[in-house]
Specification:
The chain is an alpha/beta fold. The protein contains twelve helices and twelve strands.
Length: 347
């Protein structure tokens, strides 16, 4: 099988590339990535010498590029996306282009060439989930941020192409994913790398927002099962039932690093912050036999340990990239000052 993996230099995309190359020795991967701020060729370190992997620098919204690549593969897995809620509140236009227009371009090529497209989505399309309920695939989509609205828009395009054209398309909705090589704007890598430098950890509001924490390799394995066995026109939740409030995750990080809880600074919350996401993964477990390999403790500990062991990777972004510094100041500078914690350097 020859697979086009879009967003191949990103966090989950690069993990999926490794999943395929390690577990399917006859498969080949064609990786496509625009290499925006979160796309990082260092995420593909060690793979470029693999004769079964080839990388192409390009945009999923570029019809000519997509048409050429789709014609050469058996299936498509779309990880390419703008993914951070905070950034979507600052720059929503980029999210519409990548998460809706880009998906439409891939769908159109998949339709013309008769290829399967797996659209990798998120639990955030369900919106806030009330206590006692766990989202199932038939629940309505109620996105509450520009990010999740754009992802829901991409999903609805997939549904429309399946119904209108019979396009072979399947959707996955993953829960909060953590692990190696995650761009340090997200909670876990941000707080690990801040704590390693004894910088404040800016916690939104009371820190009691509930999330289900999924290790990236488990997520990639779930997507791979859907690629090969998922039913066309269906969606599959990929979640583990490891709900924890953000503050508990943060304390687990600090405990693993032997850092003090005095680094925690509660700052003004972001607009429209969903309190709880929770997936029911029964469908993928029962139909496809997927189950996670890591529990909550190993998910957090293995993630923290990777950043401790790979300072060159994260310092190139968190310490040395001016784009990241500018974003951090824009997002957290005034919040930390409002909380009386000063700026990023502690001043």
């Amino acid at each position: 099988m020859r697979i086009l993996v879009t967003g191949a230099a990103g966090f989950i995309g690069s993990a999926y590339v490794r999943q395929v190359l390690e577990h399917h020795d006859q498969d080949e991967v064609l990786g496509l990535d625009l290499l925006t701020y979160a796309g990082n060729m260092a995420n593909l370190q060690g793979l470029k010498a693999n004769s079964r992997f080839r990388f192409v620098h390009g945009d999923i919204a570029d019809r000519e590029v997509v048409e050429d690549l789709v014609a050469r593969v058996d299936g498509i897995v779309n990880f390419a996306a703008e993914t951070h809620v905070d950034r979507s509140l600052l720059e929503p236009e980029a999210f519409a282009r990548a998460n809706v227009t880009g998906v439409m371009t891939l769908l159109d090529a998949a339709r013309r060439h008769g290829r399967r497209l797996v659209q990798v989505s998120t639990d955030e399309v369900y919106g806030h989930v009330d206590d006692g309920h766990h989202s199932v695939e038939s629940d309505p989509l109620r996105p509450r941020s520009p990010y999740s609205a754009a992802k829901a828009g991409g999903e609805l395009m997939c549904q429309a192409f399946f119904i209108s054209h019979g396009t072979d398309v399947v959707v996955t909705r993953g829960s909060n994913t953590v692990g190696p090589r995650q761009y340090p704007e997200k909670l876990v890598p941000l707080f690990v790398t801040n704590a390693l430098r004894d910088l404040p950890l800016p916690v939104y509001g009371d820190g009691l927002q509930l999330r289900d924490w999924l290790y990236v390799d488990d997520h990639a394995a779930g997507v791979d099962l859907v690629v090969r066995q998922g039913r066309a026109g269906e969606a599959y939740n990929i979640g583990v039932g490891q709900e924890r409030p953000n503050i508990e995750v943060i304390r687990a990080i600090l405990d693993r690093l032997d850092k003090p809880e005095s680094l925690i600074v509660h700052v003004p919350d972001r607009p429209g912050h969903d309190r709880r996401y929770s997936l029911n993964p029964a469908k993928i477990r029962e139909e496809l036999g997927w189950s996670p390999r890591r529990d909550f403790a190993s998910t957090i500990n293995d993630t923290v340990d990777w950043y401790v062991s790979n300072p060159t990777w994260w310092r190139a972004i968190a310490a040395d990239d001016q784009r990241f510094a500018d974003y951090y100041e824009r997002q957290y500078g005034w919040r930390l000052e409002a909380a009386g914690a000063g700026t990023r350097d502690g001043s």
